[in-house]
Amino acid sequence: MRRLFASVFSAVLAFSAADAATDQFLKSQALRNEAAAATAAGDNARAVAALTEALRLRPGHPGILLALASAEARLGDGESAMTHLQQYATMGLVARIADRPEFLPLALKPRFVGARVQIDLNAEPKGAPVRAFALGGGGALFEGIAVDGAQAFAGSVRERRIVRIQAGVVADFVPRAANGLFSVFGLAVDGPHGLLWAASTAGVLTPDLNPGELGAAGVFAFDLVTGEARFKALLPAETKAALGDIAVAADGTVYVSDGANAAIWRLKPGQSELERVFDDPRFVSPQGLVVSPDQRRLLVADYAMGLYAIDLESGKMAALSAPSAVTLLGIDGLSRADDGVIVATQNGVSPERVLALAIDPDFALVQRVRVLAANSPLHDGITLAAAAGPFVYYIANAPWARFDEAGKDVKGGPFADEIVAKVPLGP
Questions:
Q1: What is the mean pLDDT of residues 7-13?
Q2: Which DSSP helix (H) or strand (E) runs through 363?
Q3: Best exposed site among 5, 201, 229, 369 by fewest CB in 10 Å?
Q4: Which is it for the CA torsion 131, 135, 141, 142, positive or negative?
């Protein structure tokens, strides 16, 4: 679902992530506002200066990059404008630039033409995703997915249940509100312990809440074979948590992201309560989580700020760097393939897409990015993914766009079937 640079769960719960925003984020936003005011006043030099600093604070931000190119073109610095347009084009993103008046003086220049052609090519289908199976009417609003061998699981936000898919057949696995289950978001399989874990939050789309439950959240464990409830750890409603994505380490330790409080929670084996950990002030909207192959690091996708790696022993956190023509913003879900490649769903950019990230052994640098799927007719709201064997499975068309922050369906009418797509992971 689209996070729009704030926690989607914060939006669904009508909480604000701004209180948790970092100085880096807030300064960047203030600079963007300053640039907009400067542009309105015709002060293009001040707009360029503000956007240059904003981009330094949030490297790879597509919106800032495009705004900077526009400001530079208005200032008469066509060479810098074309450099930033080429960077944007190389990111694989789309935008309308050919008919923007500030770029008209550049229209016949080879570098501008090259950037424009590349941006047009970025709108073409990438990869070969196919329909793996249908989950049924999108009114259930399935968000999370997990795969375990020949079976898959998907969690419903609006129906408080989990389904299992075997041989293409979808059936209830965890019934509606079993063991107090709220809306289901991220799912994770803990095969060695025979458990399916779910991150669950009580929001405005959660039906049949009891008085005082709105804002409560927790992690729930179910038997991987029978679906029987095994365990739950809840946070009270006054915490106003929004637990969204979940990962399980080899020893059974559970990590879950909280987009409303900009925090990570942990549940160690034998513990009965979630503990707030890795509460780094750089977080704005932590989402996808994955444990590194060596079990030493936790990779976190912050929707507004990019990727971070947390040393699980020391608790120290560092931002991952990337080439200038790569954006790590707008990443929703993370999954780790058998060969260690990190799979990401990125729905905060246009086009929304599924990526394979090659990360160095120290988890300090994203070395390469491959687009596994983009611009597919199957796509209409990518959410979370699960890498399994040679494929990546992902929710392709969750209808989040139909609902406003109060949980009202602003479109109305029938829902299309929600589907899971799969795409080869490739070499």
A1: 36
A2: none
A3: 229
A4: negative
- The 331-336 sheet, strands edge to edge: 331-336, 342-346, 353-359, 366-374
Give the pLDDT score at 11. 36
Does this model's pTM top 0.70? My answer is: yes
Residues contacting residue 58 through CB under 8 Å, at least 6 positions apart: 24, 25, 28, 64, 304, 305, 329
Overall average pLDDT of the 286-298 stretch: 96
| Integer Cα distance of 134 and 142 in angstroms | 11
Q: Which residues sit opposite 234 in a β-bridge? A: 218
Tokens representing 14 are 């009508």
Mean per-residue pLDDT for 138-146? 97
The first and second tokens of residue 352, run together, are: 């929304």
Strands 243-248, 254-258: pairing kind:
antiparallel
pLDDT on residue 427: 77
Q: Token pair of 357, please? A: 């990230």
Q: Which domains does the chain have, with CATH numbers?
A: 8-121 (1.25.40), 130-424 (2.120.10.30)
Position 426 confidence tier, pLDDT thresholds 50, 70, 90: confident
What is the spatial distance between Cα 295 and Cα 316, in angstroms, rounded to a whole number? 15
The beta-carbon contacts of 92-100 under 8 Å, at least 24 apart in sequence, are 92/122, 92/126, 92/353, 92/371, 92/374, 93/62, 93/119, 93/122, 93/327, 93/349, 93/350, 93/351, 94/119, 94/122, 94/123, 94/350, 94/351, 95/66, 95/119, 95/350, 100/70
In this predicted model, which residue has the larger pLDDT, 112 or 7?
A: 112
DSSP string, 90-101: HTT-----TT-G
pLDDT band, residue 14 (cuts 50/70/90): very low
